[in-house]
Specification:
By secondary structure, this protein is of the alpha/beta class. The chain contains 13 helices and 17 strands.
Length: 442
């Protein structure tokens, strides 16, 4: 089939797709370019593309996504003080470039100021910003631009980044379901030896077609960037000629800094955030049961509320780590935790002894529930008990979900308010796994 015939076939599929749309499915957001993205994401299967598209429309309506850019996310100011990132120009195809120094993120500090929900809200806002930049670039160039380019700098990656896995998982799901075919390229640079461990976990959440767009540049990343991004748009620290890092927010030249007797001028287009000030703020706050990342839950009199937390699975022998703490604003509440294992395991695979020997503070030992794990039966991790505050740790040897129950059924007159923080991440892996394509020196 010639290129012209192929294009005619695609146009025919698009026309049939548009004919399937009901009146309520037709919105200004649903341009031909948008419809083509959903068709391509479902390999031009009309029924599958229609289901995906209408599901996205419902999500956008329920969450008022069309109005997201009307105001900045509530905690964006905290995010900008804790995450080094920036939209920085366009590549040679007119696609917006987004740079993030992921390796410099300290998730334990970040998650004291923002919840995972806060981070997801900011991610959605960023995706809408990118879509707007694509539309503006396309209008200027007179062509369809609907994809972006991401540069992910992993210099500084450490095991503390495990605490960001739940956020990454949720973003991957949102991007695949509601922003299909919007990634043009994702470059990973400065990947340390620890990277295969994280990629082994995250790649399960990334569609195979998207994985093909991820490129790890082990060497010569500046050369690759210069080939694909105009020099005046490329950040100076990544081989370009952009000098925006030499100026402050008001456009004035930055003052020369003296450090340890050496004169240095910062020229970073994507500045590295200074976390010390934010960490100092945490020291002065001084309440582990009421950080900025704690959430508020109101339980009416005579009722209960449940919160489910899914584990993050590491390699096949690693399991998941859960942590939690809460306090009531006034009086107490009946608190319990139920574990729902998702699969059985061979008892020989689990080193119960080594887990118990390295018992963490406030940890509930998993070995006490070995029989329930073997039978894949749900079990009470914590039996119901009235508390005004509690904190705990649990390491599960297999994938599972914890259900935290705040029960106020016994109180028919008084509602309760709880401040809580529930987290999950993976345990350390025992061996590396395969990684995306790596660009090596030829």
């Amino acid at each position: 089939m010639s290129a012209a015939e192929l294009q005619d076939a695609k146009n025919d599929v698009l026309a049939r797709f548009k004919a399937m749309l009901k009146e309520e499915d037709k919105t200004p957001w649903g341009t031909d370019s948008t419809l083509r993205r959903f068709l391509k994401a479902r390999e031009f299967n009309l029924e599958d593309a229609y289901k995906m598209y209408t599901s996205c429309l419902r999500w956008r309506k329920e969450n008022n996504i069309d109005k997201v850019l009307d105001k900045e996310p509530e905690k964006l100011a905290y995010f900008n003080k804790l995450v080094s990132c920036k939209f920085h120009g366009f590549d040679k195809l007119g696609r917006p470039v987004y740079i993030e120094r992921v390796g410099k993120i300290h998730y334990p500090t970040l998650l004291e100021f923002l919840t995972v929900d806060d981070l997801v809200e900011i991610h959605i806002w960023q995706m809408e910003v990118m879509a707007k930049k694509c539309a503006e670039s396309g209008a200027k160039l007179g062509k369809d631009v609907h994809k972006g380019v991401n540069i992910v700098d992993l210099e500084g990656l450490s095991m503390s980044h495990r605490h960001g896995l739940e956020f990454i998982r949720r973003c991957a799901k949102i991007d695949e379901q509601y922003y299909p075919e919007t990634m043009g390229k994702l470059y990973i640079i400065n990947a340390p030896r620890l990277f295969p461990f994280f990629w082994g976990i995250c790649k399960a959440w990334v569609h195979p077609n998207t994985q093909k767009k991820i490129q790890v540049l082990a060497v010569n990343h500046e050369k690759v960037f210069r080939e694909n991004i105009p020099l005046h748009f490329l950040a100076a620290e990544y081989g370009g000629k952009c000098t925006c890092g030499q100026f402050d927010a008001d456009g004035n030249p930055k003052k020369v800094k003296t450090q340890e007797g050496k004169v240095e001028k910062e020229v970073f287009c994507v500045p590295i955030v200074d976390l010390q000030d934010m960490k100092d703020q945490l020291k002065y706050r001084g309440d582990e049961y009421d950080s900025l990342s704690h959430q508020t839950l109101s339980i009416s009199a005579g009722t209960f509320e449940e919160v489910k937390v899914e584990g993050i699975e590491g390699d096949k022998n690693a399991g998941s780590l859960f942590t939690w703490n809460f306090k009531t604003v006034a009086k107490n509440i009946e608190f319990s935790v139920v574990c729902h294992p998702k699969k059985a395991f061979d008892s020989k695979e689990v080193k119960w002894q080594s887990i118990s020997e390295s018992k963490l503070k406030d940890e509930i030992p998993a070995s006490a529930f070995s029989e329930s794990f073997r039978k894949t039966e749900k079990f009470e991790l914590l039996f119901p008990e009235k508390k005004d505050k509690h904190k705990g740790v649990f390491r599960s040897p297999v994938p599972c979900t914890l259900v935290f129950k705040f029960d106020n059924s016994y109180s028919w007159m008084t509602g309760k308010t709880v401040r809580y923080k529930l987290t999950s991440t993976c345990l350390t892996a025992s061996s590396p796994t395969s990684t995306p394509h790596t660009e090596s020196e030829s």
